[in-house]
TrEMBL record:
GO terms for molecular function: diaminopimelate decarboxylase activity; pyridoxal phosphate binding. It is an enzyme of class 4 (lyase). It comes from the Bacteria. Pyridoxal 5'-phosphate binds at residues 231, 274-277, 375. This is Diaminopimelate decarboxylase. The modification N6-(pyridoxal phosphate)lysine is found at residue 62. Its EC number is 4.1.1.20. Residues 40-281 form the Orn/DAP/Arg decarboxylase 2 N-terminal domain. Keywords: Amino-acid biosynthesis, Decarboxylase, Lyase, Lysine biosynthesis, Pyridoxal phosphate. The active site is at residue 346. The keyword Ribonucleoprotein does not apply. InterPro entries: Ala_racemase/Decarboxylase_C, DAP_deCOOHase_LysA, De-COase2_N, Orn/DAP/Arg_de-COase, PLP-binding_barrel.
Amino acid sequence: MSHLWSPVTGKNRFFDAAEPFELISEFGSPLYVYNESIFRARCREMRNLVSYPRFFVNYSVKANSNLTLLRIAREEGLLADAMSPGEIFVEEAAGYTSDEILYISNNVSEAEMRYAIDRGIMVSVDSLSQLEMFGRLCPGGKVCVRVNTGVGAGHHAKVITGGKKTKFAVDPSLFDDMREILRSHRLSLAGLNQHIGSLFMEPGKYLEGVSALLALAHTFEDLEFIDFGGGFGIPYEKAAGQPRLDLADLGSKLDAILHDFARTYGKSIAFKVEPGRYIAAESCVLLGTVHAVKENYGHRYVGTDVGFNVLARPMIYDSHHDIELYRASDTPFSDLYPVTVVGNICESGDILAKDRVLPQAQEGDIIGILDAGAYGYSMSSNYNNRLRPAEVLLREDGTVKLIRRRDTLDDLLRNF
Ligand SMILES: Cc1ncc(COP(=O)(O)O)c(C=O)c1O
Ligand SMILES: N[C@@H](CCCC[NH3+])C(=O)O
């Protein structure tokens, strides 16, 4: 039995089914551990966001494209987004059919666009030059256009995808030119989509974006669907008491807007959202091992095997993840003081948590990095020729399933 120190009170039920030390000894460290019931619960919350009947949730698989999790998302009735042929390929392997996938392309080659067209997958283009390309490849076809309504939101400048300072989507002032391209290739505009950015915690900006897109949508007569994008945030700072996004409030306001639009649009219309993080983030704790503790010029460091090759978010965006400690011995956890938790990569920016208030860690302790299910494994790499970790699923029936094996040294030579 291990001992747990957690900054998050009122739990910890995540590891009911299996102990961190047992998991690490069986599957290696670091290790992405997912909880099936949390993942399914998040899928259902999104499915039930509104009462509007033709409402679809496209899971944005860039957050986490593990095949087993994709199959579960599909079982829960989620459709899928794809950002690349690779994502389409994996979605098809998980059982998604062409009518269940929306390809939200960005600066793709002809071959990449054709990959979706050949499969009958709906393509969203995000520039007029790519609309031209689509028209050349698929004259007379149906297409979707990604629109930048000028509304943007997100937890960091690098993930705000709407507004005046982003490469994404079509500026509505170019709509006359867009209509001309549609006409010249006999294309029908089946859908409009947008994505304002990743991680908002208040409904305001999202609903502002929804209304802005719908105002533009009224000027097109034949739309089949409108897709408002993802961005639904989760509270990463639970230990500090950060509240959850009020989905019930967001859902009821969104519902009213959708019914209103549908009443006045004049034809049956479907609506979509594209959550990634909300579905996957909280279903995962990333486990790692403490291998060294040291003091450098008065600064205390906890050295772990969770480098930024394993979890890139803190390095790229200074993102916060709450951290727990598990201990096999009976040594009690000490008082709390600030330490910097780092990985094993040869860069000084390889920092998981700076000046985090924790008990003194010991060699052999396990750390648990919470809410690591979105943009965790999917952004991991082999930098420093390190092996990407395994992923395991704590199933609802109490069993543990390996859902992706850990890289092997041979994998490092696979492409030579
Ligand atoms: C086009 C598009 N849709 C959906 C998402 C999913 O975003 P999130 O994980 O914040 O829900 C992203 C990523 O930000 C995206 O680029
Ligand atoms: N990778 C970002 C989110 C970007 C989503 C892709 N548009 C994160 O970890 O927060």
